[in-house]
Write a structure and sequence with these properties.
Elements (H helix, E strand, L loop, with lengths): L1 E5 L3 H12 L3 E5 L3 H8 L10 H10 L3 E4 L2 H7 L2 E4 L14 H13 L4 E5 L7 H12 L6 E5 L9 H6 L4 E4 L3 H11 L6 E4 L1 H31 L4 H9 L20 H15 L4 H25 L6 E5 L14 H11 L3 E5 L4 H8 L4 E3 L2 H4 L5 E4 L4 H4 L3 H7 L4 E4 L6 H6 L3 E3 L5
Parallel strand pairs: 1-2, 1-4, 2-3, 4-5, 5-6, 7-8, 9-10, 9-12, 10-11, 12-13, 13-14
Helix pairs in contact: 1-3, 4-5, 5-6, 9-10, 9-11, 9-12, 11-12
The structure holds uridine-5'-diphosphate-xylopyranose.
């Protein structure tokens, strides 16, 4: 089946490559010629495990192509996915201007019936606005449907999540649209939930917000554990063994980041408030997430006493392992605070240093080797649980440091082991 995807970011590119993988002919459209040229040259503008290989394989198979010609994209496929960004505005409201722009462009190129599908994460009622926009700009009485088909991709495992989803959600307004989307997903073995557009839009925001709530709940528990001389890892394990709760997303740490949870929780709060409901529960989820970074910084300050002129080595810049994405990463808040307090910052990350250099330039120092990054450091702070840090030779690390102080924001290490090696060790919510 011919499928067109508008937007070649994390969601659009992964979705297009995976649709091609399951047998469809996918054309990915972007209005950024340089991005399209890079993709046509086989260059992927971000790190996602396996994506570069999959894109090359699908392009070679002739089932994945890239273009800036949106008219061609609209006219060649019965199904058009909108996968452009919906960034947060300072107020927390989602910026839907790219969605509107694409809906208008699609309308102006429409030559016959199409299903226009929201793949991007959008607030509820956006589908109605997309329909209104297409109605206003469509050239004649051409029939069309709007649909919502949210993605549940995690960075770092996006291909796996796309090819083996827990569920496929189809928010549709006609049987014709439903049957086309069922055809798109026929090769996948996953339960398909068919509902209306508004419910599908809410399912996405509600799912991400629930996951963020689990994390903030674990982080709140971590502070109680620390006050009660209990251990959050053991508490989380005990709670998570309840099949109704589940062990996932109960890992306390320095707080969640990324391009989704912060933005989606903000946008859900905003649309709920617009509809007339103050989502106080989610406002507290956000507040706990902000507080967890301050709680971590207090640990660094307690460990160093005077931060000014001290050298602090940051292990892990990306918001989570197996990605180079720095969006809303805890490292940004931690490094900003350290610089404001006069510390010297050494940074290491397996993948995110090029992205960090663009943000911080020579305000901090970058290292390809973790032991060199820790050379003569007064403290090592772990912000992302990359495997490379769990594999470190801690004796060698300790010997390279000026003083063996470690503040572990992801409870990567066993306290007894690290303390036994002579480190002064602080972590999250543990005895
Ligand atoms: C998330 C959702 O998981 C995914 O379904 C949705 O489509 C997009 O948003 P992503 O943001 O890529 O995916 O990463 P995820 O693995 O969910 O982690 C998000 C943040 O939560 C990271 O900063 C991670 O460090 C943090 N986290 C996750 C915790 O602090 N504790 C946990 O137990 C799990």
């Amino acid at each position: 089946m011919n499928i067109t995807i508008v937007g070649t970011g994390y969601v659009g590119l992964v979705t297009g490559a995976c649709f091609a993988k399951i047998g469809h002919n996918c054309l990915c459209i972007d209005n950024d010629q340089s991005k399209i040229s890079s993709l046509q040259a086989g260059e992927i503008p971000f790190y996602e495990p396996g994506l570069s290989e999959l894109v090359t394989e699908m392009c070679t198979a002739g089932r994945l192509t890239f273009s800036t010609d949106s008219a061609e994209g609209v006219q060649r496929s019965p199904v058009i996915f909108i996968a452009v960004g919906t960034p947060a505005t300072p107020s927390g409201k989602a910026d839907l201007s790219y969605i509107e722009q694409v809906a208008r462009t699609i309308a102006q190129s429409m030559n016959e019936y199409k299903v226009v599908v929201e793949k991007s994460t959008v607030p509820v009622q956006t589908g109605e606005r997309v329909r209104m926009t297409i109605d206003r700009h469509i050239s004649s009485e051409i029939p069309f449907d709007v649909a919502s088909n949210p993605e549940f991709l995690r960075e770092g495992s996006a291909i796996e999540d796309a090819l083996h989803p827990d569920r496929i959600v189809l928010g549709v307004e006609s049987e014709r649209a439903e049957s086309l989307l069922r055809e798109v997903y026929a090769p996948l073995d996953a339960p398909i939930l068919v509902t209306n557009i508004g419910s599908a839009e809410i399912i996405k925001h509600a799912s991400n917000s629930f996951l963020a709530m689990k994390i903030s709940y674990a982080n709140a528990l971590s502070q109680i554990c620390e006050l009660a001389n209990a251990d959050i890892d053991e508490v989380a394990r005990g709670v998570g063994l309840d099949r109704r709760i589940g062990e996932n997303f109960l890992r306390a740490g320095v707080g969640y980041g990324g391009s989704c949870f912060p933005k989606d929780v903000d946008a859900f709060c905003d649309i709920a408030s617009e509809l007339g409901y103050e989502f106080r529960l989610l406002q507290e989820v956000q507040a706990i997430n902000r507080e967890q970074r301050r709680y971590f910084l207090r640990k660094i300050e307690d460990a160093l006493w005077i931060v000014k002129e001290k050298t602090v080595t940051i292990f892990g810049l990306s918001f989570k392992p197996n990605t180079d994405d720095l969006r809303q990463a805890p490292s940004l808040d931690v490094i900003e605070w350290l610089l404001e307090h006069g510390a010297k910052v050494h940074a290491h990350d397996p993948k995110a240093i090029p992205a960090m250099r663009k943000l911080y330039g020579d305000r901090i120092r970058y290292f390809e080797d973790p032991y060199e990054a820790a050379q003569d450091a007064d403290c090592v702070a772990i912000l992302t649980e990359w495997q490379i840090y769990g594999d470190l030779d801690l004796t060698r690390l300790k010997d390279s440091m000026k003083q063996a102080v470690m503040v572990d924001g992801r409870n990567l290490f066993d306290p007894q082991e690290v303390i036994g090696l002579g480190f002064e060790y602080k972590s999250i919510g543990r005895r």
